[in-house]
Amino acid sequence: MIWVCVIVNSFFWFCGVNGGQVLNAFVDPVWLQFTTENQEAVAAGQTLQHIITLPFKDLFVFIGGGGATIGLAICLFLFSKSRANKTLGKLAIIPSIFNINTAILFTFPTVLNPIMLIPFIATPTINALITYVSMAVGLVPYTTGVILPWTMPPIIGGFLATGASWRGALLQVVLILVSVAIYYPFFKIADKRNLEKEKATVGGK
Protein backbone atom coordinates (compact mmCIF):
# COMPACT_ATOMS: atom_id res chain seq x y z
CA MET A 1 0.00 0.00 0.00
CA ILE A 2 2.86 2.39 0.75
CA TRP A 3 4.01 2.41 -2.88
CA VAL A 4 0.57 3.28 -4.21
CA CYS A 5 0.16 6.02 -1.60
CA VAL A 6 3.54 7.57 -2.40
CA ILE A 7 2.90 7.59 -6.15
CA VAL A 8 -0.65 8.95 -5.83
CA ASN A 9 0.45 11.57 -3.29
CA SER A 10 3.23 12.74 -5.59
CA PHE A 11 0.99 12.82 -8.65
CA PHE A 12 -1.57 14.96 -6.82
CA TRP A 13 1.18 17.38 -5.78
CA PHE A 14 2.46 17.48 -9.36
CA CYS A 15 -1.02 18.56 -10.41
CA GLY A 16 -1.02 21.32 -7.78
CA VAL A 17 -3.25 19.50 -5.29
CA ASN A 18 -2.05 18.81 -1.74
CA GLY A 19 -1.60 15.05 -1.94
CA GLY A 20 -1.22 14.67 1.79
CA GLN A 21 -4.53 16.34 2.48
CA VAL A 22 -6.24 14.06 -0.02
CA LEU A 23 -4.77 10.78 1.25
CA ASN A 24 -4.02 11.32 4.93
CA ALA A 25 -7.63 10.93 6.03
CA PHE A 26 -7.57 7.41 4.61
CA VAL A 27 -4.08 6.13 5.40
CA ASP A 28 -2.84 8.06 8.43
CA PRO A 29 -5.17 6.29 10.89
CA VAL A 30 -3.66 2.95 9.82
CA TRP A 31 -0.09 4.19 10.01
CA LEU A 32 -0.79 5.90 13.32
CA GLN A 33 -2.03 2.56 14.67
CA PHE A 34 1.19 0.89 13.50
CA THR A 35 3.19 3.69 15.10
CA THR A 36 1.35 3.24 18.39
CA GLU A 37 1.87 -0.53 18.32
CA ASN A 38 5.61 -0.03 17.85
CA GLN A 39 5.61 2.40 20.75
CA GLU A 40 3.84 -0.14 22.94
CA ALA A 41 6.27 -2.86 21.88
CA VAL A 42 9.23 -0.71 22.91
CA ALA A 43 7.63 -0.04 26.29
CA ALA A 44 7.01 -3.77 26.80
CA GLY A 45 10.48 -4.77 25.63
CA GLN A 46 9.04 -6.68 22.68
CA THR A 47 10.13 -6.91 19.05
CA LEU A 48 8.88 -4.12 16.81
CA GLN A 49 6.41 -5.35 14.22
CA HIS A 50 5.84 -2.51 11.76
CA ILE A 51 8.17 -0.89 9.26
CA ILE A 52 5.50 1.39 7.80
CA THR A 53 4.67 4.12 10.32
CA LEU A 54 4.04 7.85 10.28
CA PRO A 55 7.74 8.67 10.84
CA PHE A 56 8.63 6.29 8.00
CA LYS A 57 6.53 8.42 5.65
CA ASP A 58 7.21 11.88 7.05
CA LEU A 59 10.92 11.62 7.81
CA PHE A 60 12.30 9.14 5.29
CA VAL A 61 10.05 9.06 2.23
CA PHE A 62 9.17 12.74 1.77
CA ILE A 63 12.43 14.41 2.81
CA GLY A 64 12.14 18.04 1.79
CA GLY A 65 8.36 17.86 1.37
CA GLY A 66 6.12 16.47 -1.36
CA GLY A 67 8.21 14.93 -4.13
CA ALA A 68 11.15 14.60 -1.71
CA THR A 69 12.50 17.81 -3.23
CA ILE A 70 15.39 18.41 -0.84
CA GLY A 71 17.65 17.14 -3.62
CA LEU A 72 16.21 19.70 -6.02
CA ALA A 73 16.66 22.43 -3.41
CA ILE A 74 20.34 21.48 -3.09
CA CYS A 75 20.71 21.51 -6.88
CA LEU A 76 19.14 24.97 -7.04
CA PHE A 77 21.39 26.24 -4.26
CA LEU A 78 24.67 24.77 -5.53
CA PHE A 79 24.44 24.34 -9.28
CA SER A 80 22.12 26.99 -10.75
CA LYS A 81 23.31 29.04 -13.71
CA SER A 82 20.04 30.88 -14.17
CA ARG A 83 19.80 34.05 -12.09
CA ALA A 84 16.20 33.28 -11.10
CA ASN A 85 17.12 29.77 -10.01
CA LYS A 86 20.08 31.03 -7.99
CA THR A 87 17.76 33.36 -6.12
CA LEU A 88 15.20 30.62 -5.61
CA GLY A 89 17.88 28.27 -4.32
CA LYS A 90 18.93 30.77 -1.66
CA LEU A 91 15.32 31.28 -0.60
CA ALA A 92 14.28 27.62 -0.67
CA ILE A 93 17.19 25.77 0.93
CA ILE A 94 16.41 26.58 4.57
CA PRO A 95 12.65 25.83 4.38
CA SER A 96 13.49 22.58 2.56
CA ILE A 97 15.52 21.45 5.55
CA PHE A 98 12.25 21.66 7.48
CA ASN A 99 10.33 19.83 4.73
CA ILE A 100 8.64 22.99 3.47
CA ASN A 101 8.90 23.28 -0.30
CA THR A 102 6.10 25.61 -1.40
CA ALA A 103 8.51 27.96 -3.18
CA ILE A 104 9.98 25.13 -5.22
CA LEU A 105 6.61 23.62 -6.06
CA PHE A 106 5.10 26.80 -7.43
CA THR A 107 8.06 29.01 -8.37
CA PHE A 108 10.60 26.69 -9.99
CA PRO A 109 8.07 25.11 -10.63
CA THR A 110 7.62 21.38 -10.22
CA VAL A 111 3.83 21.68 -10.45
CA LEU A 112 2.64 20.89 -13.99
CA ASN A 113 6.22 20.97 -15.25
CA PRO A 114 6.65 17.98 -17.60
CA ILE A 115 10.42 17.97 -17.14
CA MET A 116 10.02 17.32 -13.41
CA LEU A 117 7.29 14.65 -13.51
CA ILE A 118 9.66 11.67 -13.51
CA PRO A 119 11.96 12.75 -10.64
CA PHE A 120 9.06 14.17 -8.63
CA ILE A 121 7.35 10.77 -8.52
CA ALA A 122 10.44 8.56 -8.67
CA THR A 123 12.39 10.15 -5.81
CA PRO A 124 9.95 9.51 -2.93
CA THR A 125 9.13 6.09 -4.38
CA ILE A 126 12.80 5.11 -4.39
CA ASN A 127 13.21 6.62 -0.91
CA ALA A 128 10.40 4.37 0.30
CA LEU A 129 12.01 1.32 -1.31
CA ILE A 130 15.47 2.02 0.11
CA THR A 131 14.09 2.70 3.58
CA TYR A 132 11.86 -0.35 3.60
CA VAL A 133 14.62 -2.70 2.46
CA SER A 134 17.15 -1.16 4.86
CA MET A 135 14.83 -1.78 7.79
CA ALA A 136 13.59 -5.17 6.59
CA VAL A 137 17.12 -6.62 6.37
CA GLY A 138 18.22 -5.07 9.65
CA LEU A 139 20.60 -2.41 8.38
CA VAL A 140 18.52 0.30 10.06
CA PRO A 141 16.28 -0.11 13.12
CA TYR A 142 12.52 0.21 12.77
CA THR A 143 11.02 3.49 13.90
CA THR A 144 10.27 3.15 17.60
CA GLY A 145 6.87 4.80 17.69
CA VAL A 146 8.03 8.23 18.74
CA ILE A 147 5.93 10.75 16.83
CA LEU A 148 8.00 13.66 15.59
CA PRO A 149 6.71 16.72 13.72
CA TRP A 150 6.94 16.41 9.94
CA THR A 151 9.07 19.57 9.98
CA MET A 152 11.86 17.81 11.89
CA PRO A 153 15.14 18.36 9.98
CA PRO A 154 16.85 15.32 8.48
CA ILE A 155 19.65 13.58 10.36
CA ILE A 156 18.14 14.71 13.66
CA GLY A 157 14.79 13.21 12.67
CA GLY A 158 16.28 9.93 11.50
CA PHE A 159 18.34 9.65 14.66
CA LEU A 160 15.40 10.23 16.99
CA ALA A 161 12.83 8.22 15.02
CA THR A 162 14.93 5.05 15.12
CA GLY A 163 15.60 5.13 18.84
CA ALA A 164 18.69 7.34 18.80
CA SER A 165 20.40 5.20 16.16
CA TRP A 166 23.17 6.72 14.05
CA ARG A 167 22.08 4.36 11.29
CA GLY A 168 18.75 6.17 11.03
CA ALA A 169 20.61 9.45 10.59
CA LEU A 170 22.97 7.91 8.04
CA LEU A 171 20.04 6.53 6.07
CA GLN A 172 18.64 10.03 5.73
CA VAL A 173 22.00 11.26 4.42
CA VAL A 174 21.92 8.49 1.82
CA LEU A 175 18.36 9.39 0.83
CA ILE A 176 19.32 13.05 0.40
CA LEU A 177 22.22 12.07 -1.88
CA VAL A 178 19.89 9.82 -3.86
CA SER A 179 17.45 12.71 -4.20
CA VAL A 180 20.20 14.98 -5.54
CA ALA A 181 21.33 12.31 -8.00
CA ILE A 182 17.82 11.74 -9.35
CA TYR A 183 16.87 15.40 -9.66
CA TYR A 184 20.19 16.68 -11.03
CA PRO A 185 19.87 15.76 -14.75
CA PHE A 186 16.30 17.04 -14.92
CA PHE A 187 17.25 20.18 -13.02
CA LYS A 188 20.06 20.84 -15.51
CA ILE A 189 17.61 20.71 -18.42
CA ALA A 190 15.24 23.14 -16.72
CA ASP A 191 18.06 25.43 -15.59
CA LYS A 192 19.50 25.57 -19.11
CA ARG A 193 16.11 26.57 -20.51
CA ASN A 194 15.69 29.28 -17.89
CA LEU A 195 19.19 30.59 -18.61
CA GLU A 196 18.47 30.74 -22.35
CA LYS A 197 15.24 32.66 -21.68
CA GLU A 198 17.12 35.13 -19.48
CA LYS A 199 19.78 35.67 -22.14
CA ALA A 200 17.11 36.14 -24.80
CA THR A 201 15.32 38.68 -22.61
CA VAL A 202 18.51 40.64 -22.01
CA GLY A 203 19.49 40.44 -25.68
CA GLY A 204 16.09 41.65 -26.79
CA LYS A 205 16.24 44.85 -24.78
UniProtKB/TrEMBL annotation:
<keyword id="KW-0762">Sugar transport</keyword>
<feature type="transmembrane region" description="Helical">
    <location>
        <begin position="170"/>
        <end position="187"/>
    </location>
</feature>
<dbReference type="InterPro" id="IPR004501">
    <property type="entry name" value="PTS_EIIC_3"/>
</dbReference>
<dbReference type="GO" id="GO:1901264">
    <property type="term" value="P:carbohydrate derivative transport"/>
</dbReference>
<dbReference type="GO" id="GO:0005886">
    <property type="term" value="C:plasma membrane"/>
</dbReference>
<dbReference type="InterPro" id="IPR051088">
    <property type="entry name" value="PTS_Sugar-EIIC/EIIB"/>
</dbReference>
<feature type="transmembrane region" description="Helical">
    <location>
        <begin position="59"/>
        <end position="79"/>
    </location>
</feature>
<feature type="transmembrane region" description="Helical">
    <location>
        <begin position="147"/>
        <end position="164"/>
    </location>
</feature>
<dbReference type="GO" id="GO:0008982">
    <property type="term" value="F:protein-N(PI)-phosphohistidine-sugar phosphotransferase activity"/>
</dbReference>
<feature type="domain" description="PTS EIIC type-3">
    <location>
        <begin position="1"/>
        <end position="186"/>
    </location>
</feature>
<keyword id="KW-1133">Transmembrane helix</keyword>
<dbReference type="InterPro" id="IPR003352">
    <property type="entry name" value="PTS_EIIC"/>
</dbReference>
<feature type="transmembrane region" description="Helical">
    <location>
        <begin position="91"/>
        <end position="111"/>
    </location>
</feature>
<keyword id="KW-0813">Transport</keyword>
<dbReference type="GO" id="GO:0009401">
    <property type="term" value="P:phosphoenolpyruvate-dependent sugar phosphotransferase system"/>
</dbReference>
<protein>
    <submittedName>
        <fullName>PTS system cellobiose-specific IIC component</fullName>
    </submittedName>
</protein>
<keyword id="KW-0472">Membrane</keyword>
<dbReference type="Pfam" id="PF02378">
    <property type="entry name" value="PTS_EIIC"/>
</dbReference>
<keyword id="KW-0812">Transmembrane</keyword>
<feature type="transmembrane region" description="Helical">
    <location>
        <begin position="117"/>
        <end position="140"/>
    </location>
</feature>
<keyword id="KW-1003">Cell membrane</keyword>
